[in-house]
Specification:
This protein is mostly helical and 132 residues long. The protein contains five helices and no strands.
Length: 132
């Protein structure tokens, strides 16, 4: 499952990059825009090696990775946690049950939000009509 997750992540990223580049070249994003140069000095971007990138995938603190929304670190931590829970076996069942219950709760929250979405859109349209 972990390999499938990483492959899906890489494939969706590659598709998004290709679609973005093709679309921006077709539309001609930035054509005719001139940017004025300023005299401020700009520091050179730090060059990052492939080894540094691989090392940065491993989070120092999983909660910091979650708060900074660093997806590669989050996925790495989730994979390691999943593998360790699989290896533990039966003693990990209560934690797995908690995760499953959390997943079900999040699904239900999503369903509730989706049920109320049309009302929110309608209220926003009405608000925009009266305020403009």
């Amino acid at each position: 499952m972990g390999v499938k997750t990483v492959v899906c992540f890489l494939l969706s990223t590659a598709i998004a990059i290709v679609l973005g580049l093709v679309t921006s070249n077709i539309i001609g994003v930035g054509t005719g825009v001139t940017i004025q140069q300023t005299t401020q000095s700009v520091s050179a971007a730090k060059e990052v090696s492939m080894l540094d990138t691989l090392i940065n995938i491993i989070p120092n603190n999983p909660f910091e990775a979650l708060s900074k929304q660093n997806l590669l670190q989050i996925i790495f931590f989730a994979l390691i946690l999943g593998f360790s829970l699989m290896k533990i076996g039966e003693p990990a069942k209560p934690l797995l049950d908690m995760f499953r219950a959390g997943q079900e709760a999040m699904k239900e929250i999503t369903n509730i939000v989706l049920e109320f979405t049309p009302y929110g859109v309608k209220l926003r349209v009405l608000r925009d009509r009266f305020h403009s």
